[in-house]
Recover the amino acids of this structure.
């Protein structure tokens, strides 16, 4: 039995499309439209405030309310497993509030946690490559400051998450907001991210976490920088959603690290 | 007041993403996620049978039923104006059945007709260029056979729709199904479409209608062939949906023909 997939879209709009496309790309089909899974993408940007702004100023309305309203709509039309392609929105002050709303409303759909899925994927990879330990992080300032990745990836000291210098963090943050504002990621944003990633590699990163869902848009189909693999949590989430919805339709991994 | 946009997706899956992306691309924003319109994309491929197959054999179940169930879900979560990026599904034996279901169910959302919107756009263009008359059509065999484009575009003898040779029609049809089966349109499919378009230009086409929503995926950002403009009904539908939802947010046209 195949489950229906829901996506909390609009955070940002293009990240929602990217996750949806990665679900289609990673589904085994015989080439017919009808072989695809049901996927519901609700882009409700205007109802979900900026996540970083809220994390910096907790007196503002919590974006959790709009995220919950989106999940409620997804649940109403039958979505059974839901993902949200926004790293910052997985920070505990937002994500746990969404979970509480869902419990109160007694929603039956399952809401995957993108960063937990990333941890799960990385631990599987570590079984093959036990030396994997230092992970460099590219993200928004909100994701850096609230330390979501260290919270989830450093538990049991499985991994260590490397941060760029404060200048590097600023470059990565600026790049993300430049990408959000353009249909095609500008070259300037790509260069900022590339430079920051190179700094992380010099610090000893064995893999680079693309810790904001706009970042994979800038790296297109690139899977590594100077031989260091890029880890795309959007792609991991897409594959986790398929695994939950219809494991037999999950495409074999065609890149060594996915 | 901004209306909420719904998309009947999954016909095909990538065409739904393409329409959704064109809505985002054609919306005026200040670069913030929150400036975007609400867009609901429901990909329900497995519930909507092949349109060409049904048009050839009317004893099969009408895909209208699954299209209606999708619109019913869109209506339930508040979509007010709906579009469907599948030309073949706009053939009267399918589209009129959907309309009847909607009337019976008393749905309040408005369902735009992509081919009528294309006619509307072309008549506006004809005001600027009165000589515009001969339009070459690239499409699936179902769309050719059921003559949707002549039905809508030749009324009042405003335009004449040119068809490729039967060999050209077959090439175009094959190309579409090749595109459906691949995440990235294969070069072979692009060449088939290019060759068929060149044949139409030799027949006197003043513009080429990309009359299947998979076809624009093969032409990427190409806007003309040998100086003859390509008309993309998916882009026209995206702009019509924004016009209905929030006309003040419709980007000025940056290409002479859109």
């Amino acid at each position: 039995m195949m489950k229906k997939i829901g996506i909390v879209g609009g955070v940002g709009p293009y990240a929602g499309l990217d996750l949806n496309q990665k679900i289609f790309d990673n589904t085994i089909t015989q080439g017919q439209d009808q072989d695809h899974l049901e996927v519901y993408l609700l882009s409700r940007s205007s109802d979900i405030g900026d996540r970083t702004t809220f994390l910096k100023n907790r007196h503002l309305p919590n974006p959790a309310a709009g995220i919950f309203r989106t999940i409620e709509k997804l649940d109403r039309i039958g979505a059974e497993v839901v993902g949200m392609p926004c790293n910052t929105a997985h920070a505990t002050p937002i994500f746990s509030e969404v979970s509480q709303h869902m419990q109160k409303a007694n929603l039956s759909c399952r809401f995957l946690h993108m960063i937990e899925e990333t941890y799960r994927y990385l631990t599987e990879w570590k079984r093959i490559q036990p030396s994997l330990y230092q992970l460099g992080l590219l993200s928004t300032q909100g994701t850096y400051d609230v330390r979501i990745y260290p919270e989830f990836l450093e538990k049991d000291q499985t991994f260590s998450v490397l941060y760029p210098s404060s200048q590097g963090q600023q470059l990565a943050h600026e790049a993300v907001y430049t990408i959000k504002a353009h249909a095609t990621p500008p070259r300037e944003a790509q260069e900022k991210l590339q430079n920051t990633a190179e700094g992380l590699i010099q610090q000893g990163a064995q893999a680079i976490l693309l810790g904001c869902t706009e970042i994979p848009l800038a790296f297109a189909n690139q899977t590594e920088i100077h031989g260091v693999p890029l880890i795309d949590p959007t792609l991991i989430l897409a594959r986790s959603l398929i695994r939950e919805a219809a494991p037999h339709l999950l495409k074999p991994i065609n890149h060594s690290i996915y």
